[in-house]
User: Fold these one by one.
Assistant:
Number 1:
Amino acid sequence: MEKTVTIAGMEFGSGLPKVCVPLTSGCELGLLKEARLAAALPADLYEWRADWYQGDCSGALALLGRELGDKPLLCTLRTAKEGGQADLSPAAYEERLAALVGLGGFRLLDVELSCGEERARRLIALARSRGLGVVVSRHDFQKTPPQQEMVETLLRMKALGADLPKLAVMPQSPADVLAVLEATYEASAQIGPVITMAMGDLGKLSRVSGGLTGSCLTFGAGSSASAPGQLNAEDLRAILQDLDPWGTQKGM
């Protein structure tokens, strides 16, 4: 098992969880303003939500490249069934995501597990051929699956070829949040760094506990949040540093 994963020169699973700021504007002017705000935040990387964008994607990626500097960009096309804006069939999703890979301008690609394992394998292979890191994701906005099911989902993502398996679920009770933390710890002990979160206000604890449980990345809001329960990026960074379980920030 690899204890860390390196993508675009960034080591995931070492030190504090990385802070990723999402960019969700639907137009060029809005994206420009959002990117400039995000560039001033304590972010390690950024996520561009292509499903929200209504303009020319190549122009958007060029804009982000100019404004965000050399920090990695994660490209995500989130489908409606996973809580996003892209109402696409699995075949159309694969086509759109492949087209985005063809444009370039980002270092990581999000691939939804729900598109089907064969499509996911093809998209992962395509991303790898372009030198991209791959996040394989699954989102459940209704419930929290049983703990062992969550572990098995993360392990299946890794087996498919994910650099970073990602699982986001909606807790209905404090027990659900604890189940996410337990599943994260168990899965990361077997396959290395993962990305997990319990969404909503109830799940906020899971967004700051990755240093202890093995979740290597957490999302912090800039001008807008991309999912319920996201903390402001500046507050998130401060909390992560304060909670640092291994003392990696001593002397800073």
Number 2:
Amino acid sequence: MGVQAAFVVPHPAVIVPEIGRGQEKKIQKTVDACQEVARRIGEQKPETIVLISPHQVMYANYFHISPGSEAKGNFAKYGAEQIGMEISYDEEFVELLCQVAETKKLPAGIQGEIDPQLDHGTMVPLYFVNQVWKNYRLVRIGLSGLSLMKHYELGQCIKSVAEKLERNIVVIASGDLSHKLKIEGPYGFQKEGPEYDSRVMYVLGKGAFGELLEFPENLCNKAGECGHRALTMMAGTLDRTEIIARHLSYEGPFGIGYGVCEYLARKENPQRNFKEQHEKKERERVASQIRKQDAYVALARRAVEEYTRTGQVIPVPAGLPEELYQQQAGVFVSLKENDSLRGCVGTVQAAENSVAEEIIYNAVSACSRDPRFQPVGPEELDRLTITVDVLGKLEKVNSVEELDEKKYGVIVSKENSQGLLLPDLDGVDSVQEQIGIAKRKAGIKDQEEVELQRFEVIRHF
């Protein structure tokens, strides 16, 4: 018993015939594949289905698991109110999953429900399943803004619970692929769209789940995918498990990629320990960077490590380059883990007596006080990449023509709201994008006029 099978399915509402009204024939391969998945699930006769949906409530640093005993929903927003469903939740599974996640220090639980109604990312796959098999209880899990590795780890927790309860469990990862495959599509075209879909379907077809952890965040963002974290969590549910992988279909006629895959669990296979393999690679990569880091980054790392291990702020050490003692400047310290942001705190202008002190205090804040993340744990230290940006003088600009997203950082201001974005960031390829992100950080609407300032930085690796 445990996780017997897992499936990757998309969730375009158009494949429900009552909604598509004939349009579903344009993606008939996807419809056929979803029906094949339903038949497979019917053969498995699962007691519990764990469904991972990108359209369940999503938080930046928390995994939401649907609470309660039951839920219902319908397709009213797609003009098919008559098509609905009611499901029963597996409360015992949910309770134990929350406990296991807590022991692993994963932020997951039943708090924070906004809408108890089933989302379409849940209902579209279950529309097909319910035609074949209804004698199951559901566990519905949302995604988060946390790293891919954290999603994989929650998948491992799901596997552990399935085995402890000795239940026949099936996992469904609901998620569309790139939304940017065609100019005429609803989200336009980005070259990263087809690139992402080709790469992810190759990985999924092989069942090479470790490679899911290696997708650059920039590629995923540019491709406009919605399901990569769901795929990664699903992969964790099959950790150390021999599988039979089968690619069922892929198509994208509407400018959105739809992929369907099947994984049947077989015996345990310790060599499919993708978390450990990936962490080993990350430790080796970070160790290589540490050997090359300059005095600025070395100081930030020392401050992070000491505070994380002991809760103590280091004093300014001797033996640093003279400018770290004599100069004053704003400083940003950025932490990344597994290529995902893990913390970033900084000062626009000097708040301390020296750049050295500025680095120390902002490094401590980045690892412990960034409200978007939990404090860094000691077990993460050898996987952290650290950069230090030393800011130059602020300059007021009168037009966007005076900006350059690679050379200058930007500050947008309106009344009491202010947003900042550093220069030369992955995934920010235009001044318009840079300004838009800075506005969103400040809670300023895209169309609102703002005052602009620019600054240069010296980035230390």
